[in-house]
Amino acid sequence: MLPYWVLFFCVAWMAITHMRPVARGSQRAFPMEGAWLVAIALLTLMIGWRHEVGGDWVSYLWHIDAMEGKSFGSPGANGRGDPAYTLLNWLGANWVGGVYFVNLVCAAIFSVGLAVFCRSQPRPWLALAVAVPYLVVVVAMGYTRQGVAIGLAMLGMAALQQRGVVAFLFWIAVAGLFHKSAIVLVPLVLFSGQKNRLMVMLGVVLVCLVLYVLLLQESIDNLKYGYVDKEYDSSGAAIRVAMNCIPAILFLLFRKRFRLDARAQTFWTWMSVSGVMFVPLLMVSSSSTAVDRVALYWIPLQLFVLSRLPDVFGRFAAKNQLVVFSLLGYSASILAVWLFFASHAFAWLPYQFYPWVFLWQ
């Protein structure tokens, strides 16, 4: 488990050495300085070239084997109906790299999305440190399709503030090509503070219909059977939902202290309200797995809220070391609890790096 801790402490060190928040006018994703390019490269390689890491590793190998020797789009080569992910699997199976090619491309997309989202926060390195224990280690290394979809969704959330609804919908639509469930985020643009709410509503309805026809119509029965009818349960779902609920409540209680513009405050208010609603939904749902998987798209709320708490509970624009160190301690405890006590942590241990394994086996 040492590589996971090395990754976390490297990012935590950057959060400590860059403790003062970035000026409001300079919170831009591009251009990225060298440290962020190194971070993206490190995350991409560690996530993308993992070997036998993650609970669904065997399933991903099966997807590759099922497409080997088949023409793209032929029966048996359509994956789970997620076009972009299916294309990557077909390329990996028939042209280059196998599962490692697929994982590397998905890891690169996820890492760029995560970096862009973090760099839109006043304390980008602190946001990245909050992301490492669960979003990076567990989600990106365990759920490849949904991980890349979340990365693209974070691009949309970052774009919503600067470029508006169209950019947000574009990135969510691309995310849906990797995992259909990403379209659950589409209705949130109705609450992003747009002036022409009726036009936005009509646009959202149109986008939802198009995405439904293109992505969901043929597989809605399979999704219902897989997540609802079979009543799958996820161990630890309550804890993961609570991890979203806590920052959601903090934002709702102290949102005036976050000093956001009207659009951002409205959007993140509704993100927080819906984040809290996962608690009663989990209690009444027949399938905790369905709730758990959808709630993953609310993890960016943790990064957004927690990385801003130093200014909320401390002096605005100051270092506020106590709050920063407390958040880093909280993040370290999340990583420790998961690695030592999670029921599926064995699938992540030990961490193996494909080039190293290839050279020595």
User: Main sheet?
Assistant: none
> How many domains?
1
Order of helices and strands: HHHHHHHHHHHHHHHHH
Cα-to-Cα separation, first versus last residue: 21 Å
By helix and strand content, what is the structural category? mainly alpha
Rounded to an integer in angstroms, the radius of gyration calculated over CA atoms is 20 Å
List unreliable stretches of 5+ residues. Answer: 214-233
Mean pLDDT: 85
Helix content: 55-70%
Count the E strands: 0
How many DSSP helices? 17
**Quaternary status:** single chain
Question: Proportion of β residues?
Answer: under 5%
Q: Any idea what the shape is?
A: globular
Structure explained in plain terms:
- 68% of the residues lie in helices and 0% in strands.
- It is globular, with a radius of gyration of 20 Å.
- It has 17 helices and no strands.
- It has one domain.
- By secondary structure, it is mainly alpha-helical.
